[in-house]
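The instructor's notes for this session suggest beginning with a concrete chain rather than abstract definitions. Hand out the sequence below and ask the class to guess, before any prediction is shown, which regions might be ordered.
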Amino acid sequence: MSNVIIKALEERLRQINEEGFSAAHDDCYTQGQLAAAAACYACFAEDVLQGGKSALDGQPPAFWPWDDAWFKPSRDPKRNIEKAMALLSAQYDAIERAETAAIEATTTPDILWSTNDEMFNHDDLQELIEERQLQAGDTVYFGTKRHAKATDFTTNIDELVIEGMQVQAEDDAGEVAEDYPSASEPQIQVLQTLIEAWATTYCAPVFYQVLNTQPYTLTASDIREVCQ
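After discussion, reveal the predicted structure:
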């Protein structure tokens, strides 16, 4: 795998942790500014590779979206590519968040019903009443359906990866590998972020959880609705 994927992610996390490029910050830019900034760094990478001198004067292209003082190109084309990729990643994530928010804004929460506060298999109260032949005064339970997310199951997976590498290294090389691998906190954060992205992309759960469950006592009106 190309090292640039890791380096770009490392830069993206630096932008978040040191420069405040959080999701809330990035979502304020709704006109493609992040993509424009990425294009500026990509242009400078091209200029350096072609022997140009733009990176020496540090002046941004005309389409740079922010204050000139924020533009910090490098004489190293790889570094400019890393910054461009990190900003494109930020733009991509912002687009996905906007799409998700638009869908959620028009979606009403799914309510599920149960007779035992354990198995919530019905999304219609009348169907539950009819199937279980319930009567007025019986207690049922309802809650809000929440689709599970892959990241619900990736907590501290980075530790398992590092421990697994350590075990294999000690098996192969003995005591000389007892301190391997040695990773800094930022490097571990890169690993965890990669794992979460992989899980989100390829391991979407098909099951769900039910939150905020509450009891409900059936009324005569509920029973009459079934009989109509």
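Then share the key points. Residues 131 and 148 are 27 Å apart (CA to CA). The chain has a mean pLDDT of 92.
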